[in-house]
Amino acid sequence: MATPGSEATWLWVGFIGMLLGTVYFAVQGRGSTDPEQQTYYIITTIIPAIAAAAYLAMATGLGVISMPIRGAAGVDIYWARYADWLLTTPLLIIDLALVAGVRKRMIYKLLVIDVIMILGGLAGSMMQQGAVIRIAWWAVSTAAFIILLYYLLGEFSRRARNRSTATGVVFRRLRNITLGLWALYPLVWILGTGGGFGMITITTEIMLYVVLDIGTKVGFGAVLLNSQDILQTADHPTSKGDIKSQ
Ligand code: RET
């Protein structure tokens, strides 16, 4: 356990942002009676709730350890963020899979790839031997990430389009948020304490992760939950009018 320095302010911003996101989604989901819709609400509400717990742990020093890395006496490793990502990125993928209507086997495949991506980042951040080994882990993690994008752009998008035009549009919006924001994580990692170069300060690194985490969890969730009407109409065209023919 180590004590967070000036970056603590941003960790508290992260905590409050996630808490507000959780409350917002929970309140929004209260009126829902449709079981399919409830699944989206439950998954999407749990995501910022997990992150709020992780940010609280990081802000209070529980989720951070100080490790000697390459001569530097104590580099703070915020391991709790990997615990957060390990749980929340699979849930985000499940949200995308539900919209696209992909097969279970495909979901399992993506979840394995996703876990490799996050654990690769955790392993790299913990390595004490120096830059080469850290970058090697970064490369493993980034390779997993690229495979993940390949499936999101290919199979997932195709399935969503085949479901209905409206589903295709909603999926594309969610996918683009995911592609655009997720791609910034490996950059922040390699520039910050992860890569070991320290090209950005720890405060900047944490601030960037907070902004990205809020975008990928609360921003993504808001778009998804506000698209429920479109998705429901598209999936049950006979009951609410056929969106496909519009
Ligand atoms: C790491 C390590 C370096 C290489 C890559 C990474 C990717 C991380 C990603 C994280 C996404 C997190 C989200 C969190 C909030 O919901 C682990 C930084 C590729 C893509 C979406």
TrEMBL record:
Its main location: membrane. Belongs to the archaeal/bacterial/fungal opsin family. It is found in: Membrane. One of its GO terms (biological process) is phototransduction. PROSITE patterns: BACTERIAL_OPSIN_1, BACTERIAL_OPSIN_RET. This is Bacteriorhodopsin. Pfam families: Bac_rhodopsin. GO terms for cellular component: membrane. InterPro entries: Arc/bac/fun_rhodopsins, Rhodopsin_retinal_BS. It is a multi-pass membrane protein. It comes from Haloquadratum walsbyi J07HQW2. GO terms for molecular function: monoatomic ion channel activity; photoreceptor activity.
